[in-house]
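can u do me a favor
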């Protein structure tokens, strides 16, 4: 419990300390004095410092398999499973190029955090209202045209199933971002992030070994209408296969599955 309080307070003070810098960044936007990609890269690097510190405070061992998929030289739509709160913190700490997250609208209610998410290219989506969900997809597509990648969790919410291989159905809506930009999609599997906080309550924070594995890019430019229709199921299966690979790695390391 004490460590949870330490992490919570650290994040609070971290974002409070960035208030003057946040104001400067919004002035740059108002003056249109800098290219969006450069500005968002600087904001990304600012937040990464805090998130990497959180991982250290939580005593996280982070293993990344095929990180070269983070540097493909073009905007990418990353599609991942969603296990815990630490998913975004862990993957954000790895980014090389500006990457926005398609995030639930509830995060927009958190002061300071919402501003830095906005500054770094994230888009808030109201999944309950189709009209606003489409607007979010359009906004994310515009970011891609400026050179940003986008990260989505097509399950729609964090999975609470104890078995990591039991994925919720991947929804097709967010995949339209790739179709609008004819960009590649990279499937990603995240393992054991829920064991840090969510599954440890009330102890809340547990030292864990997180493994993130990136799959091979899937090209969307030449997909037929039928292939597009089948894409959500294909991606779900790809992520599941990546998770199975991770489980085998844990068996080899004699770790808990």
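np, heres the sequence
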């Amino acid at each position: 419990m004490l460590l949870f309080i330490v992490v919570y307070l650290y994040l609070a003070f971290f974002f409070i300390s960035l208030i003057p810098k946040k104001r400067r960044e919004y002035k740059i936007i108002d003056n249109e004095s800098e290219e969006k990609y450069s500005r968002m890269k600087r904001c990304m690097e600012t937040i990464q410092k805090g998130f990497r510190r959180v991982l250290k405070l939580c005593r996280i061992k982070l293993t990344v398999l095929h990180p070269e998929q983070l540097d493909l030289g073009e905007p990418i739509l990353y599609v991942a499973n969603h296990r815990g709160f630490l998913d975004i913190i862990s993957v954000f700490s790895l980014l090389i190029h500006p990457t926005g997250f398609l995030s639930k609208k509830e995060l927009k209610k958190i002061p300071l955090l919402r501003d830095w998410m906005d500054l770094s290219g994230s888009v808030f989506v109201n999944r309950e209202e189709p009209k606003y969900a489409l607007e979010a997809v359009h906004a994310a597509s515009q970011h891609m045209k400026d050179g940003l990648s986008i990260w989505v969790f097509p399950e729609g919410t964090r999975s609470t199933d104890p078995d990591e291989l039991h994925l919720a159905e991947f929804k097709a809506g967010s995949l339209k971002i790739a179709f609008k930009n004819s960009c590649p999609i990279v499937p990603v599997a995240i393992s054991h992030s829920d064991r840090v906080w969510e599954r440890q309550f009330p102890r809340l924070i547990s030292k864990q070994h997180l493994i993130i594995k990136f799959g091979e890019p899937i090209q969307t430019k030449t997909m037929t209408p039928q292939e597009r229709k089948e894409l959500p199921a294909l991606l779900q299966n790809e992520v599941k296969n990546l998770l199975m690979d991770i489980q085998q790695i844990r068996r080899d390391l004699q770790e808990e599955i």
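Residues 121 and 143 are 7 Å apart (CA to CA). hope that helps!!
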